[in-house]
Description:
3 copies of one chain form a homotrimer. By secondary structure, chain A is of the alpha/beta class.
Amino acid sequence: MAARTFTLAELAALAGGTVQGDPVLQLSGLAPLESAGPAELAYFNHANYAQAFAQSAAGAVIVAGRFAVASPGRNLLIAADAALAFARIVRAFHPAPQALAERAPQAFVHPSAEVDPSARIEPFAYVGAGARVGPGCVLGPNAFVGEGAQLGADCRLGPGAKVLHGCVLGARVSLQPGAVVGGDGFGYAFDAAAGEHLKIPQVGIAVLEDDVELGANACVDRATLGETRIGRGTKIDNLVQVGHNVTVGPRSILCGQVGIAGSAKLGEGVVLGGQAAVADHRQIGAGAKLAGRSGVTFDVPAGEVWAGFPAQPHRTWLRNTAAAAELAELSAEVRRLRAELSRLGGKK
Amino acid sequence: MAARTFTLAELAALAGGTVQGDPVLQLSGLAPLESAGPAELAYFNHANYAQAFAQSAAGAVIVAGRFAVASPGRNLLIAADAALAFARIVRAFHPAPQALAERAPQAFVHPSAEVDPSARIEPFAYVGAGARVGPGCVLGPNAFVGEGAQLGADCRLGPGAKVLHGCVLGARVSLQPGAVVGGDGFGYAFDAAAGEHLKIPQVGIAVLEDDVELGANACVDRATLGETRIGRGTKIDNLVQVGHNVTVGPRSILCGQVGIAGSAKLGEGVVLGGQAAVADHRQIGAGAKLAGRSGVTFDVPAGEVWAGFPAQPHRTWLRNTAAAAELAELSAEVRRLRAELSRLGGKK
Amino acid sequence: MAARTFTLAELAALAGGTVQGDPVLQLSGLAPLESAGPAELAYFNHANYAQAFAQSAAGAVIVAGRFAVASPGRNLLIAADAALAFARIVRAFHPAPQALAERAPQAFVHPSAEVDPSARIEPFAYVGAGARVGPGCVLGPNAFVGEGAQLGADCRLGPGAKVLHGCVLGARVSLQPGAVVGGDGFGYAFDAAAGEHLKIPQVGIAVLEDDVELGANACVDRATLGETRIGRGTKIDNLVQVGHNVTVGPRSILCGQVGIAGSAKLGEGVVLGGQAAVADHRQIGAGAKLAGRSGVTFDVPAGEVWAGFPAQPHRTWLRNTAAAAELAELSAEVRRLRAELSRLGGKK
Lengths: 348, 348, 348
């Protein structure tokens, strides 16, 4: 599958690791521990897979130092940060394909749109009036770029991904299939006299800075006024919802099915585990980490690790959760204490 | 950005508010507190933004009465219901654009479909056999209207929004990008003899009454038999799931990532906070409100406010949640009581 | 709506049930209890609908034995497994429509793709280079089949459903509208020197075996290396997220908005209730059932029923949850015990 081969020593150099075993072993690609053959490199990164590692026919294996000790006779590429080494090696074997410039005759590009000649526009993609599509962009089939939207260089819109009118993507922004940037924020005011929810036109935009990635069918709403903004290098997983006027700082990580309500503000390098949620107007300081399923209803200070719903510091949550797992017993014990105390005191 | 200007007094009259300051100030548009200039109107609606309000260069600010007292020298538009005033003013500055009737040559419209000549059908939109599309409708690029589906007047389907065969939208229904109306309900019966889940054909429909709005990538399933129905004026946020045969009453609000399981029945004016869920066949009375993350496993009476999982009355939940935040300490206290009681009583 | 009529006895034979009442009653279709007429068959499956059953004008009703006793004078089709009987009868009245082979001139099919002549390719569908589409497949409008993807016989891709490059569907796989198979897994390694999340190219695939169904806007990510695999006959509801390198066994059920993090491994016949989640690398044994909203952070043994977050055995969860609903009172009781003990013991 990969285009070329590397020696184990070349890969170790590229990944900043060291070789244990045969440095001139030729490797033609990567494969999982279970299926890798003698010319393939595998990756061992979790204690769950110790047996798969032991039984693997892989020619060599990328490991962290702690896994290296117990594997005599194996060819290893040992790296202090094995995940980073793995990432670099996958990238070496699988360089990003260079998309050929082409404008499919089945695409729709408004005459007033400015599409760089180096961009690739696939069938049934749509580029609206006044939109700008930068050099090297790829718009997959059925992708949508609305009126006046702007895409920087080398953006990739998967099939059916959508950037609505006026929204702005920086360079190298990647939208997985079906992702939506700039849908209307959820804003209504109840008109009691008319007995109806009056829609507040959402006239702001959404901005995704350079190197942002948005997962499949994830949504980032446009602002009511002003902008919703996702900072540089932030990565957002599938089916995440980011509400109107939210700010997410750079280099943050939002895992699958996270929900961020309107006007919340996340600092730089925030990490939200899967299905976590943040209430509207809440603030999360830089570097804070929220465990999966956390529900943030209070502001979270920078650098802290919180969990639970309502979210609380992770250590507190661990203690409370351990107690909660024995709550029925605790309740029974309190009833016993009551009974004994009543006997002792001769009264209720 | 806005098409015309208003004086502060004109806007106050339109919004049902009063002016504090210069009534003839000319305003050309709306902007956030942080970026508004001297010819722009901003909106101050949350204590978080007191400093932004104090420092804003906005020509005038919409506020509720409680925020008006501490702002001498500012031009204010004071409204009892500031959110409603804001909504009306945004609508004044940003009237809904009138879409030009057009049938893009790149669209597919089945010869037997009835599309009103005033409708706009954009490229790569699809209208199936026997479908009806009412006057003033707009079908965005890649939108889908299935066989026999019916759209009332002035519906808007964002890019990639889908209304499947036989489903019915009232007037002014708005589907944000990627929303799906009428996917198959999740219905199977396990055939033990064959050892497989037998699909139950979902032969009902989904109906969205007038003025319903459905968020980006949200889903409303068709019924097994009969219909799934969303009542007039109900607003549904992004990535919400509404199962088969559900009924949602009019003027309800379903926030982001809510999930409603099959055959649940929600009354009029129900509000579900983000990521809340309702189990199958449960009933929620009119006007009930469920906090974010609520999980409804019992019927909820009309007018009540519930929270938590399993959902319980909000006051109970608040008390229990406060106690849960100190559960580890409670458990320790019970152990201390046990020890002291043992000493006192001379026995376990 | 249905194409033909059956007698009640014919339907009972077909469904493996028995008739109480008139065996030669002609029935022309199915309808809900509330709207069924005298030539229609309804279905009574939940105690909530006892009144609707009592008042129904349906010609006959499918019921389980336990509901049959209290209904003299009604025509009943009594089945031990009423849900299965219902499924079979719906299928009899509504046989799957046979799609006509056709390749819409508005579709894009790459010259190197192999599309069986019996397949139906609707407008604005896209079939990439080297893709294979088996006999009897239906690709709805705006559906996407990427480069080198393979679809077995009789697959159905709803409008806007997407199968990305290299991914593989078995026979009779059904993708509801907007579903995405093979979006990139969420894999990054933090490069501290560069201060950025380095994307790990996701070069594996996703495989959906025979008879898998994937709900509207649900997502199954491709693997980093190797494959993400959904076993034969597994059914997945709307807006579900399945991460990279996950394995789901055959005949499992994943309800709406479930989230499965990377490398989790689910056995055969696993059931996950709505909004349940499984942490990365966790394992769930065959036949295990997780209640709605469960959050799996430990491995779950085969055959067990678990609930809650962190997930625990269902019986434990029920007891703990009952205690949690009275936690504030328990806390108050402990304070009272402390006060009484202090009085008794003459000390804190």
